[in-house]
Amino acid sequence: MSFDHHRLQLQLERILPTVQKPGRYVGGELNQVLKPWDSVETRVALAFPDIYDLGLPNLGLAILYQDLNARPDVLAERVYSPWTDMELAMRNNSIPLYSLESHRPVLEFDILGITLPYETLYTNALNLLDLAGIPLHAAQRTEQHPLVIAGGHACYNPETMADFIDAFAIGEGEELIHDIVIVYQAWKRSGKPRADLLLALTQVSGVHVPSLYQPGYTDDGLFTGLTPLHPLAPRKITKRIVAQLPPPPTRFIVPSIDVVHNRVAVEIMRGCTRGCRFCHAGMVNRPVRERPVAEILTAIQTALKETGYEEVALLSLSSSDYTQIVDLVDKISKHASENHLTISVPSLRIESFSIDLMDKLKGSRQGGFTLAPEAATDRMRATINKPIAAEQLLETARAIYSRGWSTIKLYFMIGHPSETMEDVQAIADLCQAVLSEGRKIIGKRASLHAGVSTFVPKPHTPFQWAPCDTPEQMQAKQELLRRELRGPGLKMTWTSPKDTLLEAWLSRGDRRMGQVIFNAWQNGAKFDAWQDQYRYDIWQAAFEAAGVDPAFYTHRQRAEDEIFPWDHINPGVRKAFLLGEYRASREQIFRADCRDSCFGCGILPTFAEIRRENPGKHWMCPEVPIRKVKKPLEAVIS
Ligand code: SF4
C-alpha cells in the first residue's frame, strides 16, 4: 500500500474551495501534534464520528490525544466525519478518510479508536470505516487492517455494535489505552495472526472482544446470554477506572474555525452520588473522585497560556457537589475579573447556593440561568429520585430573577415510568408559576424557556426494566405542553418522538440490531443525531429487511429476571442494586445522597483493592480498611 501525499494535497487544493467550512479538513491548528511518521512504533487514529465542529471540543478525545502523544513510541492523530458535501467530494475523487495532522489515510494507522458517547453516532461510525476502506464487519478484517476499538458511554451495551468493532474499551481510558497499546505492540512484533491479538486483548482488564462470544435467544426472541467461544474469554468484563484523576489536559487544540465550544474545559470531579434513577452517566461513572483545587487552578492557568482562550468551563455531572466549589470559585473569580475571563459552571443544583456561585463569577446574564428539575410533581420526583420541593424551585427562581437574570431555562423529561397526564400538566403549571414570580420581580422582561426531552430507558440504570413511551403517548404529552406553554415570555423546545425512538432502539439493542444498523447505513442513514439528516423511513425499512420488530426494544416491560444483552459488562454498580432502586421507584421511596451514608451499590467491593491502595478524601466512597495480616499463630488457632 503506498501513500501519495502529493496527490492528496493537489486533490484537496481543488476540492476544498467547493465545500462548506474547508477549515474542518486541513488540520494545522495551534497545539496539534505532528510527529515524524517513521519515528514511532505505533500510530493511532482517534476518531469522533461527527463533524469537526462537534468533535474538536470533546474532552475524552483531548485526554487520549495528549496521553498518547506524550509517549515517544506512539503518535496519535485526529479524524472526524466529513460533512455530506465533503464526503461526496471525497468519494467522487477516491480520497480515503485521512487524519488531520499528517493527512495520512486511516488505513495506514495501526489502531483506529472511535469514541461513541451516544448511540445516534453508530451509522456515522460505519460510514467512517467505509470511507477509510476498512471492512465494516470485524470478521472480514485481516492483519493488514487497523485494529478498530471503540469506547465511550454508548459502549456500556456493546452488543448492538458487536459486528463492527474488534474490541470495546469499557470505562475510563487514561490507563486502559496504554495497556491496549502495549498488547498491540507485542503482537505486532510477534508477527502472529490477528486472532492472537484479539485473544491477547481479552486479558486486558476492561477490554471486551465481542467476536469471542456467541449470543443466544429463546424462541420468542429473549436474550439468554453470551457463551464464550474461547476458554480465555472472561464471562464478565469489569470497567476500568483510575484511582486518582490524573492532571487534566492543558494543550487544547485551538481551531481556526468556529466550533461548538471555544474554551478551556477542566473536569473538576468525575462521577455522581445523587442516584437519579434515569441517569446513565450517574450510574456508570461511579465512584466520585475529585481533583484538588490547586491542580485545577494550575491547569487553568497553563491552558489559558497555551491556547489564548478567554472562557473556562468547570465540568462535572453535578458541580455544586464538588466539596471545594466555594473555595474554587472564589479563587477563579478573582483571576477571572482581573483577566476578563468568562467562567461557566454547568450542572448546578436547584438551590440558592448555586446563584451565589454564579453571582461570584459575575458572568454574562444574557444566556439565562439553567436548572434541571426533570419532573414537576412530588410523586414523579420520588419515582426518579430527584427530590426538589416546588417551593424551593420557586424560591430559587425568585432569587435568580432578582439578581439580574431575565431568563430561566428549566429542563424537564417526560415519559418517566408511571407518568400520568396530571404529572405532565404539572410541568406546565410549574413553568407558569416560575414565570409569574419573574413577572412580579422584573415585569415583562421575565421569560422562561422549558426544554422538554423524552425519557429513554438506558442499560445499567434502575429504569433498564421499564418500557419507553409509545409515539402516541409522547405526542399526547407534548401536545398538552405545547398548548399550555404558549404566550408572551414562554418558549418550549422538545424532542421529536421519532428521534426518541431511534435512541431507544439503539440503547437496549442486542446483536440482532447489527443487521438493522448495517441496512440503515447501506440505505443512506448517517448523521442520525441531526434532525434534518435523520431518516425515520430508512430505519423502518432497515428493521423490516432484517426481520426485527422495533417495538421489542422500546415498549416492552422487561421481567425482573430477564437477562440483558449488557449483563456481561460490569460497571461496578450491581444489577441487584439497580433492581432494588427500580422497586423503590415504584413505591416512591427516596434514596439519599450516598456520600453521607454508603448504601452498597457495588462499587466498593468491585474496586476494593484500588480504594484500599488509595485512601483519602478525593474519593467520596468510604475507605476500605487495610487487611490485617494474621500472624502464623493467630492463623492456626482461629
Ligand atoms: S460504594 Fe457507597 S458511597 Fe460509593 S458510590 Fe456506591 S453507594 Fe455511593
Textual characterization of the structure:
By secondary structure, the chain is of the alpha/beta class. The protein has a domain at 5-238: Rossmann fold (3-Layer(aba) Sandwich), CATH 3.40.50. It has 23 helices and 19 strands. The strands form 6 sheets. A 6-stranded mixed β-sheet has the order 2-1-3-4-5-6, covered by helices on one side. A 4-stranded parallel β-sheet has the order 15-16-17-18. A 3-stranded parallel β-sheet has the order 10-13-14, with helices on one face. α10 links the parallel β13 and β14. α13 runs parallel beside α14. The model has no long low-confidence stretch (mean pLDDT 94). The site of iron/sulfur cluster (SF4) has 12 residues, from α21.
Question: Which key phrases capture this entry?
Answer:
binds iron/sulfur cluster; alpha/beta; four-stranded parallel β-sheet; 638 residues; six-stranded mixed β-sheet; globular; Rossmann fold; 23 helices
Taken as a percent bin, the fraction of beta residues is 5-15%
CATH architecture of the domain at 5-238: 3-Layer(aba) Sandwich
Helix vs. strand class:
alpha/beta
In this entry the ligands are: iron/sulfur cluster
Query: Between the first and last Cα atoms, what is the distance in angstroms?
Result: 68 Å
CATH superfamily of the domain at 5-238: Cobalamin-binding domain
CATH class of the domain at 5-238: Alpha Beta
Query: Mean pLDDT across all residues, rounded?
Result: 94
Which word captures the global form?
Answer: globular
Instruction: Look up the CATH topology of the domain at 5-238.
Output: Rossmann fold
**Largest beta-sheet characterization:** 6 strands, mixed
What is the number of helices? 23
Approximate helicity band: 25-40%
Total count of strands: 19
Give the radius of gyration: 25 Å
Instruction: Give the strand line-up of the largest sheet.
Output: 2-1-3-4-5-6
Low-pLDDT sequence parts:
none
